[in-house]
Amino acid sequence: MGDKPPHVPEVLCAFAASDTPWLHHFVLRHPLCPASVIERFAAGPDYQAKLLALKHSNCPEGIIRKYAENSDCTVRKTVAANVRAPEDVLASLGWDRHEKVRAAVARNEATPCRVLQKMAGDRDLWVLRQLAANPRLPKGVYYELEAAGERILLEEMAANAGCPGDIIFRATAGYKYETAAALICNPSLPEFVLARLTAKAKGDIRIVQRVACHKNCPPKLATGFAAHREPVVRAAYGRNPNCPPELLRKLAADTIAAVRESAAAHAETPAEELARLGRDEEARVRIQVAWNKAVPSCTLAELAADRDYRVRSRLAKNPACPQTAVTVLLLDTYRTTRLRALVHPNCYGGPLQRGVEAVCSSPSRHDAQVLQDLAYHPEFPPHLKPVLFVVGRLNLWVDGAPNGTGLIVSGWRCFKSASRTTL
């Protein structure tokens, strides 16, 4: 399938047509939510749905322009934070009377450089803090903010990947934990600065663990971090994107669950170690395996039957989840997992049909809800929809004796017969 599976927008539209508010919010949080759905909920009475619609990356420009002039400052703030907002809208909101709206503009990476430059004169410290954290900040503005002499602004700039090297060098002249911690958050910080901060920290675990997970961690320090006496440091190094497979293998066998958890989430952990971690006694470790896109399909398929609902729910969000696992997740007892499986890229063709067949083979009260959820999918057998409506409408599902069984089974046989005729 491509990047945008055709069934996903159709399922999301079906969810949006339901009368369940939390299902609407589920739709609006999905990256493939159709613009027509976003437009409808932006104008609706549900306030949370309105904000979710306005912050969505698929929000139409016309809707953004309309609500940029709303009297509610929270609505304007949400518009100001959307990276799809037009430049002229952001320029206008940059002079809004409410500081939280201006702060959202200052933090938005889509805000034009000329607007960011003018906002350096804002008198509100919170706005300036958001400005200092924007990676698209013009170089000259960094020096203006440094001249203000505010420690909090220096810390925000220090964590910014675009911060000029001379400002970073001056920030390391002394040693303050807050400044050092901010500097290590900077993804572009060079090795020698990390080594310098580690030396000045004098064993401060808070700094050491931050250096351990930095992608530019000096190689001379890295080996020591993998065998560090403190579990938090070993776990932090396990999250380092440059941690080599041989050290990840060692971390995967650690006695501390937090360390194994970091190895389970790493893309470079050897496949055999990931398979073993998929059977770990700690659910937190298995959750990370279920979320890891590099895990072999056979291991992910096993996790579809995990005893912990959190593992199964996380697996349903993994793009690498195979069709065999999706089929199992469609029948999960946890409804959120089923709904996530329905909008999974691999939920097309076989999984849906096998799921429907499994439900129709032994319907019960729980299976009725499962079948109703599966009916949101465009590939759901059309012959079963009227039957499902009648069963639900007349409440034919009774504990211990599903009176709707005959109708469901008959409808399924009708669908199978029609399919064979068509073929």
Characterize the structure shown.
It contains 30 helices and no strands. Among the domains are: 1-57, no CATH class; 244-344, Leucine-rich Repeat Variant (Alpha Horseshoe), CATH 1.25.10; 348-423, no CATH class. The chain has helices at 7-16, 21-28, 35-42, 47-55, 61-67, 73-81, 87-93, 99-107, 113-119, 125-132, 139-147, 151-158, 165-171, 177-184, 191-201, 205-212, 219-226, 231-238, 245-252, 257-265, 271-277, 283-291, 297-303, 309-315, 323-329, 335-342, 350-361, 365-374, 384-393, 405-422. 62% of the residues lie in helices and 0% in strands. The chain is mostly helical. Residues 393-407 have low confidence and may be disordered. The relative contact order is 0.05. The protein is flat.
What are its keywords?
Leucine-rich Repeat Variant; mainly alpha; 30 helices; 423 residues; single chain; flat
Task: Give a concise summary.
The protein is an all-alpha fold and about 425 residues long. It is built from 30 helices and no strands.
Write the layout of secondary structure elements.
Elements: H1 7-16, H2 21-28, H3 35-42, H4 47-55, H5 61-67, H6 73-81, H7 87-93, H8 99-107, H9 113-119, H10 125-132, H11 139-147, H12 151-158, H13 165-171, H14 177-184, H15 191-201, H16 205-212, H17 219-226, H18 231-238, H19 245-252, H20 257-265, H21 271-277, H22 283-291, H23 297-303, H24 309-315, H25 323-329, H26 335-342, H27 350-361, H28 365-374, H29 384-393, H30 405-422
Helix pairs in contact: 1-2, 2-4, 3-4, 4-6, 6-8, 8-10, 10-12, 12-14, 14-16, 15-16, 16-18, 18-20, 19-20, 20-22, 22-24, 24-26, 25-27, 27-28, 29-30
